[in-house]
TrEMBL record:
A Pfam family assignment: NfeD
Domain NfeD-like C-terminal stretches: 85-142
PANTHER family: INNER MEMBRANE PROTEIN YBBJ
Coiled coil: none
Membrane topology: Multi-pass membrane protein
Cellular localization per UniProt: Membrane
InterPro entries: Membrane_assoc_protease, NA-bd_OB-fold, NfeD-like_C
TM spans (from-to): 6-23, 53-71
Protein name (record): NfeD family protein
Keywords noted in UniProt: Membrane, Transmembrane, Transmembrane helix
Length: 143
């Protein structure tokens, strides 16, 4: 049984696809696309071995050269979403009961929180706006 060249390219593409899933290396996916392109050249256009290898090399290299920098840039620009108490850091709150180094109450994100001043010698009076610096347990540290 003689297997056509295009089928070998598809088997290679499938192997690269499996390797991509196992290793999570996106470059293997780009090589798999190059192998599919070589299979198309072989099966549909009847290109010879040199044309197949050239198409594989050009398509794979082009994908790696174009896609990798875009992916790297996208990965570095992705905003991190804060949730839970991490999302409360940097928010403003209103003092409900005098806040000093030993305690007090604030209204933060629509809820009443216990709070204490970051600078223990400083105090904040009712109605003042404060910034949340940190959350320690159920207490907001404000300034």
């Amino acid at each position: 049984m003689d297997i056509d060249a295009w089928l070998w390219w598809l088997i290679g593409a499938a192997a690269l696809g499996i390797a991509l899933v196992v290793t999570a290396m996106p470059e293997l996916g780009m090589l798999a696309v190059g192998a599919v392109a070589a299979a198309v050249v072989s099966g549909i256009f009847g290109g010879g071995a040199v044309a197949q290898v050239a198409v594989f090399a050009v398509v794979s290299t082009a994908l790696i050269a174009v896609v990798r920098p875009i992916a790297r840039r996208h990965r570095s620009q992705r905003p991190e979403l804060a949730s839970g108490v991490d999302a409360l850091r940097g928010k403003q709150a209103v003092v409900l009961e005098r806040v000093d180094g030993s305690g007090g109450r604030i209204k933060l994100a629509g809820e009443v929180w216990s709070a204490r001043a970051l600078d223990r010698s400083h105090s904040y009076e009712v109605g003042q706006e404060v910034d949340v610096v940190e959350i320690e347990g159920a207490t907001a540290i404000v300034m």
